[in-house]
Design brief:
Homodimer. By secondary structure, the protein is of the alpha+beta class. The protein has 20 helices and 16 strands.
């Protein structure tokens, strides 16, 4: 007996309706990327392991899918390494490539390799799948698409303002009102680590803090202590967990806390400029909110960081995020190239739009017209008619066989086809075709010599 087929956990098949909805989101995001002057690039689905490893922190490294070398890879491993059963020493010997974890590090590699071919500041967008060996759950998959936009070669904070506007423009176009764009600055977190005496444990501090909305304050503090951050230092950081009020009020409190930290005060200054500029230009449907506990655990962020929350009442993780990285290309040999970028979480945005019933009804219609098949002669004439309708811009199809009419109508109904054409022997004799409105049941004749009349009616929605 054949084994029942399956797919790996954290991956999905997509139906035609799901693909149509995903494409709707992608096309909306792509439209606004190009409106804002971003250019498309693509990079390989897998990179050399050395390109990816060490760029996302220890936790990120553990989630990278490694690709085994081809051939008899085990025979090339020495006995001592093999018998040690140490994955850290064994992996580099049997795996030289890995599936990309995100689009940002491959983009940095791209910029360095093509630095003599691109014009700076370089604004690029990229919409491709990424892979993470994460634990699957709602809104979190092992294979998913990222929709990224980045600017490298410009350190102006106007770029951060533009990205806030870009988020807002896309969500407004999707009808997703009420999204919250959270903002913080890694310099503020660096400053806090400095004033509490944990500067040398900044990465551990931010990685733990990044889990605040997932595991809560007490567990975050427990993880910090496990990483070597003292109880006294955590107590000094307590104001961070209790920060409330408007952005202006929170920034005022931070100025007091960070008075002795030069880097921390620089972070406060940058946030003040970004927030005040956004307030001046205004947003359509989203809100910008300062969240001083926002950390984003990735090591490469150095300035402003973003995370987008779905509208209130929708239980979903972040639907977007990003930030400033001052020297990401430096890891590949190109120093002092500042960059900033954001990402849209396609799969989570899909789930939010679905929960809020925001997808247009038109996406459920894959055909404008289906022509029924009444036999060889009629079918040939119907194919000619369908070909003409296609040339005029309609999504038209001919049922392939002259099976029972009832079965053909049932097929049209399941496909959600709004109009069905009947072209039988009598219609051919009269030089006409009959159109049935599947919603109302009304029927109307049209001349085979004047199909443009029917086409215009379909395009105008009758």
């Amino acid at each position: 007996m054949a084994k029942k087929p399956s797919i790996p956990k954290g991956t999905r098949d997509f139906s035609p309706a799901e693909v149509a909805r995903r494409n709707y989101i992608i096309q909306t995001i792509k439209k606004h990327f190009e409106t804002y002057g971003f250019q498309p690039i693509e990079t390989p689905s897998f990179e050399n392991s050395e390109t990816l490893m060490g760029k996302y922190g220890d936790e990120g490294d553990r989630l990278i899918f490694k690709i085994l070398n081809s051939g008899d890879f085990i025979s090339k491993v020495d006995d001592v390494t093999y018998s040690s059963k140490n994955s850290a020493s064994l992996t580099p010997k049997i795996s030289e490539k890995a599936l990309r974890y995100d689009l940002t590090v491959p983009f940095a590699r791209y910029v360095v390799m093509h630095q003599n071919e691109i014009d700076f500041p370089f604004k690029r967008y990229q919409i491709q799948p990424v892979w993470r060996a994460d634990r699957p759950q709602k809104g979190r998959f092992r294979e998913f698409y990222q929709c990224d936009a980045d600017v490298v070669g410009a350190d102006s904070l106007l770029q951060e303002v533009e990205f806030v506007q870009l988020y807002d423009a896309v969500f407004a176009d999707l009808g997703l009102n009420g999204a919250t764009i959270k903002i913080n600055n890694r310099k503020i977190l660096s400053g806090i680590a400095e004033v509490i005496g944990a500067k040398h444990l900044l990465v551990d501090f931010t990685v733990a803090l990044d889990k605040l909305d997932k595991i809560g304050e007490e567990k975050v503090k427990a993880e910090m202590m496990e990483k070597g951050i003292s109880e006294a230092a955590i107590a000094k950081a307590q104001p961070l967990f209790e920060m409330t009020g408007t952005a202006s009020e929170q920034l005022g409190k931070l100025k007091t806390i960070l008075a002795d930290s030069e880097v921390g005060m620089l972070g406060v200054s940058e946030l003040e400029e970004i927030i005040s500029t956004v307030d001046m230009v205004g947003l359509q449907s989203s809100s910008l909110q300062l969240d001083v506990t926002l950390a984003r655990g990735l090591n490469y962020y150095t300035g402003a960081i973003f995370e987008v929350a779905a509208p209130e009442g929708v239980k979903m993780g972040s639907i977007g995020g990003g930030g400033r990285y001052d020297d990401l290309t430096g890891i590949f040999g190109l120093k002092d190239v500042s960059g900033v970028g954001i990402s849209f979480g396609l799969d989570r945005i899909y789930l939010v739009l679905e929960e809020l019933n925001l997808f247009p009804d038109s996406l459920d219609t894959s055909l404008d017209v289906l022509c029924l098949n009444f036999g060889k002669k009629e079918g040939t004439a119907a194919l000619k008619l369908v070909s003409g309708l296609r040339k005029q811009g309609l999504r038209a199809d001919l049922y392939p066989t002259d099976t029972k009419v009832q079965k053909q109508f049932k097929y049209a109904d399941k496909r959600g086809v709004p109009y069905v054409i009947l072209l039988g022997d009598q219609e051919l004799t009269n030089g006409k075709f009959v159109v049935k409105n599947m919603k109302t049941g009304d029927q109307k004749d049209y001349s085979l010599d004047a199909t443009e009349v029917f086409v215009e009616k379909v395009k105008s929605g009758f």
